[in-house]
Request: fold
Amino acid sequence: MNRLDVIQALMTQKGLKNYLEIGVENGHIFFRIKSRFKVAVDPKFIFDASRRFGKALLNPYNLTNQYFEKTSDDFFAQDAKQVFAGKKLQLALIDGMHEYQFALRDVENTLRYMDDDGVIIMHDCNPQTPGAAGRFEDWETGEWNGDVWRTIIHLRSQRPDLNVFVLDCDQGLGVVTRKKETIPAALPDEAVALTPEQIQNLTYDDLKANRHAWLNLRNETYLYDYFGLRP
Ligand SMILES: C[S@@+](CC[C@H](N)C(=O)[O-])C[C@H]1O[C@@H](n2cnc3c(N)ncnc32)[C@H](O)[C@@H]1O
Reply:
């Protein structure tokens, strides 16, 4: 299972359509999504107008895409209010700058415009090596997931109004929903209570020793249980 499978299952079975992707790159995921309301945010799209046109021929839903070639912080400061004035967000893929505070701002800003039943998916939440799990400035070579895992621990520690878990697939797919009686957690979560300062000071070895509990790491099939979807 990968992020596209998760997004498509939620769109088709839960009817979540209004879509935001932060960090789009070449549009590998974005252009495949079937929704009439799709918003792309990235300071550097790796595609031009002719690729956009080609993608609209392949998937006509791409005709109504909205593109914002800027950082997510600038998008939320300058455009989001107007973009989401008439339509609340229902589904977001947060896959932009993979650092703790950046991803946290992306989640908090997205929640401001998100429907009560909306879902946020976060990519790269479960790094497997110290090199993959650090800040961008410390990254040397090989896989880089960044420290979005800290964002997950932060949300689980500081936001009791949210349900947060990570699916153990596709580099770790974080799933964030508002806590509601209509979607109780399918399994009880193990509580985490770390301060932002403690979270900032965690090491990869700390993550490794507490991975399951801190990330609320679940087998990918948990997606179906949690949302009541058909596999
Ligand atoms: C891993 S790629 C995204 C891949 C894409 N979501 C996919 O699934 O195919 C990360 C992207 O985040 C973008 N990015 C970096 N900093 C960003 C920021 N501050 N705001 C939004 N996007 C950012 C980069 O330009 C890059 O294209």
The domain at 3-223 is CATH 3.40.50.150 (Rossmann fold). Strands lie at 19-22, 38-41, 66-68, 89-94, 114-122, 162-167, 173-178, 217-218. The CA atoms of residues 16 and 90 lie 5 Å apart. The first strand starts at residue 19 and ends at 22.
